[in-house]
Amino acid sequence: MEPRIQYARTTDGVSIAFWTLGEGMPLVLMPTPPWSHIQLEWQEPGRRRFYEHLAEKRKLVRYDGRGSGLSDRNVADYSVDAHILDLQAVVERLGVQRFALFGGFTAGPVAIAYAARHPEAVSHLVLWCGWARTPSEIQALRALREEEWELYTEAAAHATLGWPAGEEAHRHAAYLRECVTAEVARAIHSALLELDVTAVLSQVRSPTLIVQRRQTALPRMEVAKGLASGIPDARLALLEGASVLPWMGDMEAVLAAIDEFLGEGEEAAAAAEPPAAGAFRTILFTDVEGSTALTERLGDAKAREVLRAHEGIVREALQTYGGAEVKTMGDGFMASFSSATRALECAINMQKAFAEWNAGVGADSRPPQHGRAPLRIRIGLNAGEPIAEEKDLFGTAVNMAARIAAKAEGGEILASDVVRQLVAGKGFLFSDRGEVELKGFEEPVRLYEVRWRE
Q1: Other CB atoms closer than 10 Å to residue 270's CB: what's the count?
Q2: Host H or E run for residue 139
Q3: Looking at the domain covering 6-269, what would its CATH class be?
Q4: I need a labelling partner for 83 at 20 to 30 A (CA). Which of 61, 75, 175, 196 fits?
Q5: Domain positions in the chain
């Protein structure tokens, strides 16, 4: 049965068609401008099997970009920012705050730009035969597109499927002509051909997988290698085959690479289930130092952008180290761990990530990468047996963890003596801060600073 087609509306008033399939962690599959038609593509057996497999373990989200398929076609703006508005409209319509993002071919630059701007939203980034700067081979087809639309779609289909594709390429060319009109295709290509997001590759914080087939003529292998070297800690998976359509050729190898990559985050999330009542847990609190002053200085909208970066870094670390997000308090998080070791590793990872963020804020002497708002985060940890009620945690262990976080300075990690003893011999470095009075506790509590800087 075909997925139910729904609509989301962008902030600039464009209706975007989308469907979802499956349940679990969301994977958003971006369209490849200007080609998409979420109804017709479901009728292609190979593509349908590809979608159904991706949806077996997660919620697959697929949408038509502006100007194509079942989305509004009478649109004037086809810039990168406009394509990002399409993506934002769909995830906001679904109420999705964090998701994996798949950008293939011409969607690559848009996916990279979105991941760089919204690290708090993108849990994983998959780039399939994509690029940061439009290859010269695409530029060479521009004149053909301007002169002869049908011949251009035939050439594009053969280039996509491989030149020996024959009748299958003719069918694909007909599909391309159904996706979009010649005029809109020219407008979209003109906007995307000038795009170059090479400068923001280093700002992508999301775990990234770059998948490329060795024999594809477009893009060439050097393009994939350039992406892998430009995005911090990106992985490169080189597969056999010539088609840039992932469901053509050895589809199983493509799916295996994607499943392995996304499965790491999904397994960590599954391990972070809420604790059983009375279970021994390590409680972690984060708090943004000076959040009120930040809002007063930047204004609500820009301050919210900075706080979203805090949320993204925290959630990525929790996912990596198996922490369960209990709740967020606007400018802070409460999380719990079954392992004190993992909780401390998570806290250290967070502070290192915030330090890296702050290094990109810039000073007056150099251009900033992230605006001019550093993130200084307090982190406090305690361990005990909290009371679990309706997905929340209560009790002395929780209250003490919150008070400990309040005693920390921005960039510090403070832990109780209980936590220090639980990780004895695990290689963590502590500095004794002495006994401290905590609000609501009669007896002073001895605190330890976790030394996380190299």
Answers
A1: 12
A2: helix 136-140
A3: alpha beta
A4: 175
A5: 6-269, 273-450
Helices (H) then strands (E): counts for the chain: 15, 17
Q: Which two tokens stand for residue 435?
A: 């006994």
Q: What is the pLDDT of residue 364?
A: 40
Q: Which residues of the chain have pLDDT under 50?
A: 267, 270-273, 363-370
Place of tokens 């509004």: 72
What span, in angstroms and rounded, lies between the C-alpha atoms of 432 and 414? 10
Predicted confidence (pLDDT) per residue in 326-379, tens digit: 888 768 899 998 889 989 999 998 999 888 878 876 544 334 444 556 788 999
CATH number for the domain whose boundaries are 273-450:
3.30.70.1230
User: Euclidean distance between the first and final Cα of the chain, in Å?
Assistant: 55
CB atoms within 10 A of CB 444: 11
Work out the angle at residue 108's Cα, subtended by the Cα atoms of residues 106 and 110, and round it to the nearest 5 degrees. 95
413, 449 contact by CB (below 8 A): yes
**How far apart, in Å, are the Cα atoms of 366 and each of 239, 309, 369, 371, 375?**
41, 21, 9, 11, 18
Strand 122-128 and strand 99-104: pairing?
A: parallel
- Residue 267's Cβ-side half-sphere holds a number of Cα atoms within 13 Å equal to 6
SS3 323: coil
Tokens of 269: 């999330």
| CB-based contact 216:242 (threshold 8 Å) | yes
Q: Could you give the 3-state DSSP secondary structure of residue 158?
A: helix
